[in-house]
Write a sequence for this structure.
């Protein structure tokens, strides 16, 4: 049998779909899965009649690949990745290349790149976005590692990736763990947008008494606008229209209101705090998942901690696409992207990643979960100024903020008076209000710090560091 161009380890849904994608694009493949029956099942099923051969063990697998070998690892992030690398390394030779396509912690990837490059093996940490369907039809991919390693797989990746009007949704991201860092931040933005849409749904349901189909009609209107046309709005409409086959009621109303997480949202927030980047909208989305998981406590508190009765407020109407609510959604989505991009800009300089921001916006325009028309504006903004202080300072975004801020304010005030939580909307409002305030009250914080701890302060009217004996 001829040697295969490409190897894949891990026949989960993502792995299966990625290898079918590679094969469809002309790359003969070999596959290996720890449980052999899974490999046999795949080759008898979806892999049948394709240019894909199975391997029974890792030595057999490596032997089936042409050199230099190109192997994509699709196993659970963490210890399993190291275990596969260690077992594989026994059979690899100089110049072979491994790609970790899972959602790995970028710091793990950083050390894996160093460890393997030290053994003359290539290692790419690659974020892959788009879910199962994207993996099959064309994902967005974020590969990081050495440029030489990337060039060795560029033709494979560019053919597998989603295609948009200005090219494939893959590019060389940068050195070390940069590919996984970019994917982590992608997921942080994903958390933000999901929570924003959940808040909009909750307000329409609880304040306006709207049903799934009525809310879905509003999302359909939003999805036809430049500001909100996106994959997540599109699938939210579908979720809201879906009925329970048991009784025909809205299926979402039958789903337990506890949201899980696999780590990337948390890593986004932790990395942001470590690097000094402000990501309050993304943090609010993460924290909302934590609050949601306290289901039994929330039910107990419902009867003791009394809020106001839910009362009406101005969210707009279906004839104006719920205009103030749409303002709140647009600005919160803008804030999620702006905060994610700002985190990447800061990380790029702290970690020496030399990230090319317009290219990151470009490869997110197709294939991935946060794909949206807004990303074209984001790409344009970074093409105009590759290092803007904040996306919100680009002229198109300045216009959006100025037009839509009154609507966001109205929605947050109305939700507060009705006692309905809107963590992403209110964090976004505080973020924008803080950002546009030339003088914040941290002068008083500085005074307190100096008062109890002699931490010193700077003055507005003269240079230097000052201390006052406040309590004497
Ligand atoms: C993607 C997604 C995906 C991610 C899930 C789970 O880009 O295809 O980001 O990679 O793993 O969305 O994320 P949580 O379980 O943490 O919500």
């Amino acid at each position: 049998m001829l040697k295969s161009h490409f190897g894949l380890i891990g026949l989960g849904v993502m792995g299966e779909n990625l290898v079918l994608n590679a094969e469809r694009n002309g790359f003969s493949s070999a596959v290996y899965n720890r449980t052999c029956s899974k490999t046999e099942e795949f080759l008898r099923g979806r892999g049948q009649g394709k240019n894909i051969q199975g391997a029974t063990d890792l030595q057999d697998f490596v032997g089936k690949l042409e050199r230099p070998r190109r192997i994509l690892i699709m196993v659970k992030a963490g210890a399993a990745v190291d275990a596969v690398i260690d077992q594989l390394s026994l059979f690899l030779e100089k110049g072979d290349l491994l790609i970790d396509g899972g959602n790995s912690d970028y710091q793990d990837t950083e050390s894996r790149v160093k460890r393997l490059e030290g053994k003359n093996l290539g290692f790419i940490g690659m974020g892959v976005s788009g879910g199962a369907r994207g993996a099959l039809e064309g994902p967005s991919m974020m590969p990081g590692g050495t440029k030489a390693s990337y060039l060795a797989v560029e033709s494979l990746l560019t053919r597998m990736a989603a295609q948009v009007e200005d090219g494939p949704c893959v590019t060389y991201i940068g050195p070390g763990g940069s590919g996984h860092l970019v994917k982590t931040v992608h997921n942080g933005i994903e958390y933000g947008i999901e929570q924003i849409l959940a808040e909009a749904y909750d307000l329409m349901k609880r304040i306006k008494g709207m049903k799934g189909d009525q809310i879905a009609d509003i999302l359909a209107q939003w999805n036809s606008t430049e500001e909100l046309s996106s994959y997540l709005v599109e699938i939210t409409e579908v979720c809201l229209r879906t009925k329970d086959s048991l009784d025909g009621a809205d299926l979402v109303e039958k789903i337990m209101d506890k949201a899980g997480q696999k780590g990337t949202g948390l890593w986004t927030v932790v990395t942001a705090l470590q690097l000094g980047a402000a990501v309050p909208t993304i943090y609010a989305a993460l924290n909302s998942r934590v609050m949601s998981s306290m289901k039994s406590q929330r039910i107990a508190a419902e009867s003791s901690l009394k809020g106001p009765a839910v009362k009406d407020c101005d969210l707009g109407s279906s004839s104006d696409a719920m205009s103030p609510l749409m303002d709140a959604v647009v600005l919160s989505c803008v804030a999620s992207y702006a905060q994610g991009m700002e985190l990447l800009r800061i990380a790029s300089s702290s970690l020496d990643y030399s990230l090319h921001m317009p290219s990151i916006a470009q490869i997110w325009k197709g294939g991935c979960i946060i794909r949206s028309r807004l990303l074209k504006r984001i790409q344009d903004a970074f093409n105009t100024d590759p290092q803007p202080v904040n996306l919100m300072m680009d002229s198109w975004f300045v216009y959006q903020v100025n037009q839509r801020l009154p609507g966001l304010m109205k929605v947050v005030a109305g939700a507060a008076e009705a006692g309905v939580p809107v963590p992403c909307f209110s964090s976004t409002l505080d973020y924008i209000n803080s950002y546009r305030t030339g003088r914040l009250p941290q002068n008083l914080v500085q005074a307190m710090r100096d008062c109890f701890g002699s931490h010193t302060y700077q003055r507005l009217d003269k240079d230097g560091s000052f201390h006052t004996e406040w309590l004497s």
